[in-house]
């Protein structure tokens, strides 16, 4: 029996481009349990200093999600988090503790424009670290500056206090592109820390983490697949991983 943690999931309704209504959120919760997920970290999009964000609404929606799990009889819990688009205001928001971290840890999930430059990612990592947080790069497979330079990407992970998160789609839809080649190389070299669904709905962006886990197990050691998906780990164990230099 799988007991997976999905640490990047847009499960909360009425907050971003995830579910629009509570009924759709309930469908997503049910599907997540069917996929073997027992813990979801809710990660609504936030854009510090650009788009207003309500911490009170986030807390309310997480409470509603957990009550829905109880009402539906699901063995599933939802924890608070966010997916932060890096902006010029990010440092200030981190210093003021206005960014929801992943499950209350000092890990923050951060995303960039797909065409971000490598020096911008480096600068962002430095800003996040100097404010006392560890950056988790969301869906690393999307950034051309990382995928087209695998050696540089591996060196960054080895030298900096940074974690790499990969979306399930990069594993389930792996192909012959150079990005797919780099993803496989990162997996083989143990450079991927976390694998998540990045689910948004029950249509084209569904939670298929159980299927992803089984494919990972067919390609890697079981312990590595468990570690990346949190299978059998509690939330403290799941996030208790030390980037180089920590």
Summarize the structure.
The chain has 246 residues and is an alpha/beta fold.
Keywords:
246 residues; alpha/beta; TIM Barrel; 11 helices
Strand content: 15-25%
Note the main sheet: 6 strands, parallel
Query: What would you call the shape?
Result: globular
CATH class reads: Alpha Beta
The fourth-level CATH homologous superfamily is Metal-dependent hydrolases
Compute the CA-based radius of gyration. Answer: 17 Å
Structure annotation, total helices: 11
Strand-and-helix sequence, N→C? EHEEHEEHEHEHHEHHEHHH
Give the overall average pLDDT.
95
Low-confidence stretches: none
- CATH topology name: TIM Barrel
Q: How many structural units, i.e. domains?
A: 1
Give the termini separation.
Answer: 34 Å
How many runs of DSSP E, i.e. beta strands?
Answer: 9
CATH 2nd-level architecture: Alpha-Beta Barrel
The percentage helix is 40-55%
Spatially, the strands of the biggest sheet line up as: 3-5-6-7-8-9
Give me the secondary-structure category: alpha/beta
Question: Mind explaining what this structure looks like?
Answer:
It is built from eleven helices and nine strands. It has helices at about 20-35, 55-70, 90-95, 120-130, 145, 150-160, 170, 180-190, 210-220, 220-230, 235-240; strands at about 5-10, 35-40, 45, 75-80, 85, 105-110, 135, 165, 195. The strands form two sheets. Strands 3-5-6-7-8-9 form a six-stranded parallel β-sheet. Strands 1-2-4 form a three-stranded parallel β-sheet. Strand 1 (about 5-10), helix 1 and strand 2 (about 35-40) form a beta-alpha-beta unit. It is globular.
């Amino acid at each position: 029996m799988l007991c997976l943690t999905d640490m990047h999931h847009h499960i909360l309704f009425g907050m971003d481009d995830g579910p629009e209504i509570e009924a759709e959120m309930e469908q997503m919760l049910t599907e997540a349990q069917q996929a073997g997920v027992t813990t979801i970290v809710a990660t609504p999009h936030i854009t510090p200093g650009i788009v207003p964000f309500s911490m009170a609404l986030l807390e309310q929606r997480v409470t509603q999600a957990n009550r829905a799990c109880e009402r539906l009889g699901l063995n599933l819990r939802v924890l608070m988090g966010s997916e932060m688009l890096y902006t010029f205001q990010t440092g200030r928001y981190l210093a003021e503790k206005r960014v929801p971290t992943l499950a209350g840890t000092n890990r923050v999930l951060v995303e960039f424009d797909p065409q971000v430059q490598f020096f911008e990612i480096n600068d962002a990592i430095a800003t996040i670290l100097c404010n006392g947080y560890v950056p988790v790069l969301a869906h690393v497979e999307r950034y051309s500056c990382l995928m087209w330079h695998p050696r540089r990407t591996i060196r960054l992970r080895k030298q900096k206090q940074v974690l790499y998160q990969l979306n399930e789609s990069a594993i389930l839809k792996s192909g012959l592109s150079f990005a797919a080649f780099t993803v496989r190389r990162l997996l083989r070299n143990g450079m991927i820390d976390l694998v998540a669904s990045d689910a948004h709905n029950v249509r084209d962006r569904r939670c298929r983490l159980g299927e992803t886990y089984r494919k990972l197990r067919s390609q890697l050691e079981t312990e590595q697949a468990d570690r990346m998906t949190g299978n059998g780990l509690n939330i403290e164990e799941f996030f208790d991983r030390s980037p180089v230099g920590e």
